[in-house]
Structures are given as structure tokens and as C-alpha cells.
Write the C-alpha cells for this entry.
Amino acid sequence: MKKILLIITGGVAAFKALEVLRQLKKNGHIVRCILTAGAQEFITPLSVAALSGEQAYTTLWDTTQEAEIGHIQLVRWADVVVVVPATANFIAKMAHGLADDLASTALLANINPVLIAPAMNVRMWEHPATYANMALLRARGVQVIAPEVGEMACGEVGEGRLAAVEGIIAAVQAALNPDHPLKGKHMIITAGGTREAIDPVRFIGNHSSGKQGYAIATAALQAGARVTLISAPTGLTPPPVANYVAVSDAASMLAAVEQALPADVFIGAAAVADWCMADPAAQKLKKNDGQDVLTLNLRKTPDILAHVAQHANRPALVVGFAAETENMLENARAKLVKKGCDWVLANDVSANQVFGQDTNAVHFIAYNLHEDWGTLLKMQVAQRLVDKIAAHFHSV
Ligand code: C5P
């Protein structure tokens, strides 16, 4: 848990700062926000206060705000300062040391790490003035979360759109965690629920949302690992991993894993279907008149986790998940032995309270160890797992 000062300046992307705020809170941080006058044209101090659970700071001239916690205290309090979005005007003020409102004054008094996520029209971004200002800020050690290329609110297309929220969060986490305990380690993570084709339009699927696997990929990234995320379809935006591979079924997931090896760590967070069609139909299956029953011929899919655990190129750590509806601990332990992995994270899905949710109730199981982690946010489960992995590598 860290203390983050989030400065929101006045661009159309200001509303996305609310999502950044929500995610930082979800990761367990305390977040205080300063809104510039421009930002308040787009979002209200009330929504910021509601989401942060803290007063929203807006002005240098309010005797109550300044008396309670002045601009100097705000930056002294923070571990890191993040500006989302950073407008061209605010970047210019930062570059030249202007201090004419609470946000710019706080930054001038700040000695903590600063990250900025610029967002503006492509011509403003590419203007020599902005370019020179950015060079000044970079030279001063300000970390820039680069804008993306894309369509903008003004209708133009080009570089200048605010970076994805996930990318901003990952950059903030990395700044908070500079020692990168998993630097140099390659981690392969599978996520999502596979889809096994019945015919060209139908599939056998499951309820996995991919959230736990994506959270692990994010935490691994923040710990400095090189991450390959092999994902079956999800509704999620992937974190900015080095290697993202989109797959659909168990066979293509296995092929992608084979391609990504060797690795130091393999984490099988995907819900891989156990069965696929023995012979998927080449054309859409028809309903025949008078037919009440359809029998599908299924065959076993490859067990990716077991395959990796017994591979000639076996990663030093192989971690599986066990979603159980009964006898959770016994079944999870049996799975550990049968598949030959090192650790299993077991969860009880009997009440179906895990799929799609932000929380997970997890037991950590190794050969000679069992820990009940209780109910945690999926991001916290991910963080704990990554901490364990880091501890494992530092102890061997
Ligand atoms: O055997 P079960 O499906 O319960 O095991 C779950 C674990 O095994 C998960 O880590 C999952 O990713 C992995 N698995 C796999 N390939 C399969 C089935 C499961 O990698 N075909």
C-alpha cells in the first residue's frame, strides 16, 4: 500500500483519470487527487472524492484546504506523483517551473518520482514547443507514459491519445516497486477460457473471465519479469506484456506455450476445456426434422499444465490452478501430484462466486505447505503469488 498523489488536468481524457483512480485504489493504495480548474470542466471534485474516499484538492487559495493540508504537505505525504492526463499547457508549466495553481505549485515543491501520461491533439503533441518541453521533463527524470496512436475526440487520428489505463497502472506500480525482483525472469501465463469448436459457429466454452490470469500477468510485469501472456478469448484489455498471444482452443494454446518455452515460470491460469470435438463439423450443424437429441463425440484435450511440468525444457516453477466444487483440498493436492507441478492455487467454485468477480478465495498448496489466503481481490492474489515466486528465486 503506497500513497499516490494523482493530479488531473483539463483534457477530454480527464474522465479516464477516474478509472486510473479506481484501479489504484483497487490495488490497495491511498490516493489523493488535485484537480486543476480545467479538469473541473470535465469531471467533478465530488466524483473524485467519492472514488478516492479523500477530499478532492482544487485550489491554492482556500484557507480550509490549505490549513488542513497545504500543497507542501500533499507532496511530502506522497510516495509518487502521477499526472493523468497531462495537457500540453500543464506540460509547458511543469517544464518551465510555473506555479500559478495548486497542481503546478505542488509539483514545483515535489522531490518524489513523477509520472505523466500526456493526452492531446496530435498537432499539439508534435509541435516543436511540446517536443522541447517533453525533452526538458525527460532530462529531469520525469517518467513519461507515452500516448498512443488512435482516433481522438477531435476526430483526428495520430499520436496523442492517453495511454491505456492498464499501461498507466503498470507504470505506476513499477515506479513504486523499483527493485524489480523478477527482472530477467521469463514467465509464461495462460489465461481465459478456451473455446472448442463444435462447428464453424458454435463452441464448447466455460465461465472463465480471464481476470485472475491477467492480474498475474500485470503483477509479474510490475515485478520486472518478461511476460508471455497466452490468452483464450476474454473481454479484457491485455496488460502491456512483451509477448501477447491470442489463441482460441486447447490445441492452439499448447502450440503457443511450446513456442514460448523456455521459461523460468509457467502459470496455468487458463480454464482449459477438458474435451473437444473428436471431429469438428466443417459446416454449421443442421436441426433435422424429428430429431430431438444430438450426440457429440468428444475426445480429451491435451493437458497443457501436465505437459509443461513433464517437459524436457521444464520451467523451474510450474504453477496450476484447481477450481473445485467439492473436496477442494484433497482434489487440489491430488492434482499437484498427478500433473507434477510445484504449486497449486485452489479455489472453491461450488457457489460459483469466482467467475467474473474481482475477488477469489484461494488456498496455496505446495508439497509440504498449505496456506489459506482467504478472500482477496484477484490483483492481491496475483501480488501474493508474484511475491512468493520472487522469494523462491531469491532463496535458491
Ligand atoms: O484438471 P483441471 O482442469 O482441474 O486442472 C486445472 C489446471 O490445469 C489449471 O491450471 C489449468 O490451466 C490446467 N489445465 C491445462 N490443460 C487442460 C486442463 C487443465 O493446462 N487440458
